[in-house]
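REQUEST ID: PR-0412
SUBMITTED BY: lab tech R.K.
PRIORITY: routine
TASK: structure prediction, single protein chain
INPUT:
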Amino acid sequence: MIKRLVRMRRALATLAALAAVTLAPALAFAQEYVKVEGKAGEDVPAGPFVGIAYGFIWIAILAYVVFVARGVGRVRGDIEELRRKLEAAGKR
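STATUS: complete
OUTPUT:
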């Protein structure tokens, strides 16, 4: 009973995959090219958007550098603490 159910599910999955592969080109051919007459849209000035994009990127880079610098500072502090502990353990 279970084997039969598994076979039916595999058959349905195979049939669905076959249908998807077969019908995909038909959907592409069903779309029709329509030429646009006149002005297609409004002109949007790119300057502000480029400025915002550059600003966002520089802020992201600055935040990353600060994050990494803080991490390096913590690691240096840990190394110094370990050095002090090793020196104290060596003097015993």
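NOTES: The chain has a mean pLDDT of 85.
REVIEWED BY: pending
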